[in-house]
């Protein structure tokens, strides 16, 4: 379960659906995201939680707000999420600009609320990072964030992107991050496709380009990457698992901003969830399997030597499928 508590204050190049122009489609103008207060969101979440506990149902429930942890009630949310499912970390790119003293106070409260890990993303060294994030001073904000996290005894988890535009900065950036105080983990990963924004292909490597990167950078990347043709053959051969048609173990996302709260409170939780489950099952039944998509798009640009993840291929194939099935939002599968 999630809600939109505050918009991100960056317009990062890999997330252009917010900032202006990308290869993917954006949320329709007639159905914008709705801001929701923490109080309204947690009231809904508590009703679900109390119901599942009273019934003794074995149902996993998560709860988080977005885009950034700047909205009133965020520390209460951290406490509730920890109590609910043990969440002890959050991402903070795109948060409002803060002084060092303000950051120190923020992360003192975050630790008191149960936070133990803080996630930050660095796109490059200072000038490039700020350009990528479309916000002057963002690099220094993230650095000061990492320092405040360390001062309060929490762990930093830094993500950097393995992409064409970031390549010239990665070695210097990682060396800089390794010199920051405190406990940390540094990961490199590709810029993944999203449901609404496909990664610009100028950011992708060929295999030869990827293998020419320093080994220590490649070792930080835990995503398997291959060509479109290779992933097509991999999926067509059924050498993976997906959960699209696993109706015995359903998972779904409820956005409080999309709920009719009057209707929710006018019915029992069982009645409301019956509708949610029915809609989720129908969505999955109308969604083609990954094998079907691999067959449908078997010839789509498979002469390309660019590298993708399996997650990328699902996002691309379902983006293409949505262009010929307007109004239908498919299920996005867990793939393994």
TrEMBL record:
- Which SUPFAM superfamilies does the record cross-reference, listed alphabetically? Radical SAM enzymes
State the superkingdom. Answer: Bacteria
Record Pfam families: Radical_SAM
User: Known InterPro entries for this protein?
Assistant: Aldolase_TIM, rSAM, rSAM_sf
Keywords for the protein's UniProt record, in alphabetical order: Iron, Iron-sulfur, Metal-binding, S-adenosyl-L-methionine
Its name, as the record gives it, is: Radical SAM core domain-containing protein
Q: Which Gene3D superfamilies match?
A: Aldolase class I
Which ranges carry the Radical SAM core domain?
8-161
Q: Which GO terms describe its molecular function?
A: catalytic activity; iron-sulfur cluster binding; metal ion binding
tRNA processing recorded as keyword? no
């Amino acid at each position: 379960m999630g809600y939109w508590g505050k918009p991100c204050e960056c317009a990062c190049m890999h997330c252009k659906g917010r900032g202006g122009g990308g290869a993917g489609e954006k949320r329709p103008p007639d159905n914008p995201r709705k801001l929701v207060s923490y109080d309204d969101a947690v009231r809904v979440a508590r009703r679900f939680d109390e119901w599942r506990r009273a019934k003794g149902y074995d149902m996993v429930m998560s709860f988080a707000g977005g885009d950034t942890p700047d909205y009133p009630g965020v520390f209460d949310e951290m406490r509730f999420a920890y109590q609910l499912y043990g969440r002890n970390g959050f991402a903070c790119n795109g948060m409002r600009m803060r002084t060092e003293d303000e950051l120190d106070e923020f992360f003192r409260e975050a630790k008191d609320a149960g936070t133990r890990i803080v996630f930050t993303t660095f796109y490059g060294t200072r000038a490039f990072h700020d350009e990528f994030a479309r916000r002057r001073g963002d690099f220094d904000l993230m650095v000061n964030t990492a320092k405040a996290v360390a001062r309060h005894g929490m762990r930093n988890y830094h993500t950097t992107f393995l992409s064409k535009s970031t390549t010239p900065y990665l070695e210097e950036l990682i060396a800089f991050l390794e010199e920051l105080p405190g406990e940390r983990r540094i990961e490199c990963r590709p810029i993944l496709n999203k449901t609404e924004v496909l990664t610009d292909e100028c950011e992708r490597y060929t295999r030869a380009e990827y293998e020419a990167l320093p080994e220590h950078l490649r070792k930080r990347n835990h995503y398997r990457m291959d060509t479109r043709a290779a992933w097509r053959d991999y999926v067509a051969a059924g050498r993976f698992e997906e959960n699209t048609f696993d109706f015995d173990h359903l998972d779904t996302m409820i956005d409080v901003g999309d709920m009719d709260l009057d209707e929710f409170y006018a019915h029992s939780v069982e009645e409301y969830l019956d509708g949610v489950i029915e809609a989720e099952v129908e969505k999955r039944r109308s969604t083609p399997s990954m094998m079907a998509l691999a067959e449908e798009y078997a010839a789509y640009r498979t002469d390309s030597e660019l590298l993708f993840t399996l997650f990328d291929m699902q996002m691309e194939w379902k983006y293409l499928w949505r262009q010929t099935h307007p109004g239908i939002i498919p299920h996005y599968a867990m793939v393994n």
